[in-house]
Task: inverse folding
């Protein structure tokens, strides 16, 4: 595999995809003589890690391209972070964004139009928070457990589960991660919800970075 390399997400690790290891079992009785073939990425994690880490826990078809050589955009990064949350042991947005920065990955930010029709970088985000009540009294958002997330297409992906305080703490942590990673490009990230739950949590989050 020749440079330039894609930066990939490989089973919770992020690195340049510099090679692929292919393995198979020979079986003379099988058509073609090959069975149980598999491919595994070899990555360069950059900075303090030497190139050549074999990701033998993640087959190639389970990996995702995080950033092509020409760069990527915020919405795609958000989708990869959402995909990370679906894994048994998520790596977390902080690790993903930090490793992308160390690897020199560029992320194109969204733009919006001014009243005069000029395109300018978007620096203020309002995200729709989806809320599901999992346990506890119906109509009571101070007791029980909840699951929340945001649509990835809105720019930043958030997800949390637990009591209202646990949800607040997790979302607040993720919020600080994003604001820290994009401190030159983002002024504010605010939330709203029409689901009728966790209004106090949302209000606290919207005050957290003012």
Result:
């Amino acid at each position: 595999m020749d440079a330039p390399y894609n930066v990939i997400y490989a089973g919770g690790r992020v690195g340049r995809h510099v090679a692929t290891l292919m393995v198979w079992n020979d079986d003379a009785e099988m058509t073609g003589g090959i069975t149980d073939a598999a491919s595994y990425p070899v990555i360069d994690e950059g900075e303090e890690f030497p190139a050549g880490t074999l990701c033998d826990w993640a087959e190639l078809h389970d990996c995702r391209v995080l950033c092509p050589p020409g760069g990527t955009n915020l919405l795609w990064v958000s989708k990869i972070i959402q995909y990370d949350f679906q894994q048994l042991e998520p790596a977390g947005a902080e690790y993903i964004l930090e490793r992308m920065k160390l690897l020199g990955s560029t992320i194109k930010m969204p733009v919006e139009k001014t009243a005069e029709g000029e395109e300018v970088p978007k620096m203020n985000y309002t995200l729709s928070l989806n809320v599901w009540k999992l346990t506890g009294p119906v109509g009571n958002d101070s007791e029980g457990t909840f699951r929340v997330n945001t649509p990835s297409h809105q720019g930043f992906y958030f997800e949390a589960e637990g009591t209202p305080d646990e949800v607040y703490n997790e979302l607040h942590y993720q919020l600080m991660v994003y604001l820290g990673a994009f401190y030159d490009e983002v002024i504010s990230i605010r939330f709203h919800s029409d689901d009728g739950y966790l209004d106090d949590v949302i209000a606290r989050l919207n005050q957290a970075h003012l």
User: Anything to note?
Assistant: The first helix runs from residue 74 to 85. The mean pLDDT is 91. The longest strand covers residues 13-26. The chain is about 25% helix and 35% strand.
